[in-house]
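Hi all, posting the design record for the shared folder.

TITLE: backbone redesign
STEP: 1 of 1
STRUCTURE INPUT:
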């Protein structure tokens, strides 16, 4: 059974009948009471009193049919266990007083998940958390297909996040150079949203947005992984420095030969290359040594 949107009577119109019932019931009760006190009873007066009491009871029950819906709020109407429909129009309404009115919010909500300790695709322990924006679309499924739809959303969101974390490595490595949790945030978030929608659709919930709000290595391996990242960064930087230094040395030798500044043999070229590489690749500024002799001393 799916959600059925229905319309009910306007509260502004039914309040007129509500007032009429109240006035008539009071009038009959007073009329019968006054008549009975003057005539010492009488069937007509007793009938008026009973009618007034009955109408007052009817008025009390009738008044229970009024209810108010705020914007983006719905009310599922149930009559003795039988679902009759859902009212989604905001305003003041009146429905059968014997309806059970189960109100539910249709507004967007935020789920700020707690930090979970899970293993990524490579088995490394990581800490991960998510934030999910969701709202109820189908009131029937949210109220009657699951026991507690808010708890259902929380539990299924945690389960989906654990499953997603095990599908990707934390970061791109030599063995995993496609998608990662840290480097592919948009793709991972989109896949998380799709999986959440598949799970939460059974509860009549629409997932508007899902993103990772926290991602880090677990404390027990954080230091080791930081050293690994630093080492990788240093190696990559050294590679760039060496490539640039080799190009500069080659350019220097070529320019010296083209301009005829000096004619160096292979041994002198090797010495110059060594000196230039030390200067260009060293972490600290090189200390110059002034040669006061000849070129070959």
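Okay, here is what came back for every position:
SEQUENCE:
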């Amino acid at each position: 059974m799916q959600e059925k949107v229905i319309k009910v009577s306007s509260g502004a119109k039914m309040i007129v009948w509500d007032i009429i019932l109240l006035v008539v019931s009071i009038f009959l009760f007073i009329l019968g009471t006054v008549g009975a006190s003057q005539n010492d009873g009488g069937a007509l007066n007793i009938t008026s009193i009973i009618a007034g009491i009955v109408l007052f009871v009817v008025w009390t029950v009738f008044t229970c049919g009024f209810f108010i819906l705020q914007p983006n709020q719905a009310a599922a109407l149930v009559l003795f266990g039988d679902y009759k429909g859902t009212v989604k129009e905001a305003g003041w309404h009146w429905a059968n007083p014997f309806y059970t009115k189960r109100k539910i919010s249709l507004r967007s909500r935020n789920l700020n998940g707690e930090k979970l300790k899970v293993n990524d695709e490579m088995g490394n322990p990581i800490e991960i958390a998510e934030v999910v924006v969701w709202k109820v679309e189908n009131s029937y499924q949210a109220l009657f297909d699951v026991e507690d739809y808010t708890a259902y959303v929380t539990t299924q969101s945690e389960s989906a996040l654990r499953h997603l974390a095990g599908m990707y490595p934390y970061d791109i490595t030599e063995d995993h150079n496609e998608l990662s949790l840290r480097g592919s945030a948009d793709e991972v978030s989109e896949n998380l949203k799709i999986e959440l929608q598949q799970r939460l659709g059974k509860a009549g919930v629409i997932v508007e947005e899902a993103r990772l709000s926290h991602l880090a290595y677990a404390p027990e391996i954080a230091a080791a992984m930081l050293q690994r990242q630093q080492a990788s960064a240093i190696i990559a930087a050294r590679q760039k420095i060496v490539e640039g230094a080799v190009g500069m040395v080659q350019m220097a030798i070529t320019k010296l030969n083209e301009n005829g500044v000096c004619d160096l043999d292979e041994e002198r070229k090797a010495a110059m290359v060594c000196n230039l590489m030390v200067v260009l690749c060293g972490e600290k500024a090189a200390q110059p040594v002034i040669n006061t002799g000849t070129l070959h001393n």
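COMMENT: DSSP finds seven helices and ten strands in the chain.
Let me know if anyone wants the other runs.
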